[in-house]
């Protein structure tokens, strides 16, 4: 492993009378760091969707562009899993910042170098590279979360952190509008957000710290007196790659169940999100400005929805995630149906449906991530999250990119919405299979 990525060594404990204040300060600092950093990743992840209508005008088909968009899903899914294993044995501060900087540089080049948009093959390669760097975002955030926040507070903290998706993703629409206004070309939808992401990568490095022990503090379980049922001191030691993958991840049956459910949730999430600009343009008659704001509303509606979902899971269902996921996905089915059958011209109804889908879909995405972190020791958190991400992106987002592009072109948009509704039903089914087991697995020893 490159030395710059290696976790910093543990420092000698600071004086006991300084631990409480220092811990509280650094917890806020690292939380803000991973929040801002992960929001920055979304400034350079999905903006390709906004330039699909522009590329169609240049002669590319929806099927071709779907293949290009799929490159991100393929590489991101693989990277999130494989780089998750690297992240579990790396310095989260460096890992998170480096991935964002590299991804931003790729998108900056994509928007400023004409050759990089010259063919399907070239664009596929560029998007694949970008997706690989994007996979360096979630795992180090998960590593930071499990080291700085204990199990009993993690559901709430994760729900707050998870809205970084929506903050970053929601800003893409307004930034696209601003970029065109400032620079006057469609490529600014790519390079303008990339400029901002580069700055954010340096801010992230300044804020994030790897583990409490690297700052001269005790582990979070000791500080909060919050020990999981299966916790022991060996969980504070770095595991080998073999131990992480085979002992704690591949043999975990419960993790596989939520990974399959995650694939279906991601199919719905990206099936709606990635194709919203094209669908609203072609079928609903939205202008570029109306599409940009619809994209914004979809993403930012997820903020209160995610927070409410986390609160319901912790307070109403006492830490059980499956009931909240099922309730939310049932409501997603209703919202997708309204979005589909609403006749063109009713812009307000379409926006309300998109707001509802955005409000609801990110809660299940977040809760499955929390489940993955809870199911394994801290030192395997990135890999566990990577497995659910692998299914989410290769099984869900990839299918959304490729299949929906071809289905919409050859079978029509109605067929794509039937696919989305079926995915909701499958996600509910696999989540329900975890219902009885979850309470025992999440039990905490007081």
Automatic annotation (TrEMBL):
InterPro entries per the UniProt record, alphabetical: G3P_transporter, MFS, MFS_dom, MFS_trans_sf, OPA_Antiporter, Sugar-P_transporter_CS, Sugar_P_transporter
Domain Major facilitator superfamily (MFS) profile, chain residue ranges per copy: 26-439
One Pfam family named in its UniProt record: MFS_1
Swiss-Prot/TrEMBL keywords: Cell membrane, Membrane, Transmembrane, Transmembrane helix
Annotated signal sequence range: none
Cellular compartments per GO CC: plasma membrane
Molecular function in Gene Ontology: glucose 6-phosphate:phosphate antiporter activity; glycerol-3-phosphate transmembrane transporter activity
GO BP annotation list: phosphate ion transmembrane transport
CDD domains to which the protein is assigned, alphabetical: MFS_GlpT
Membrane topology: Multi-pass membrane protein
Transmembrane segments: 25-44, 64-82, 94-113, 119-139, 160-184, 190-208, 254-272, 292-313, 325-341, 353-373, 385-407, 413-435
Cellular compartment(s): Cell membrane
Family annotation (PROSITE patterns): GLPT (PS00942), MFS (PS50850)
Coiled coil (UniProt feature): none
Family from the record: Belongs to the major facilitator superfamily. Organophosphate:Pi antiporter (OPA) (TC 2.A.1.4) family.
Protein name: Glycerol-3-phosphate transporter
Gene: glpT_1
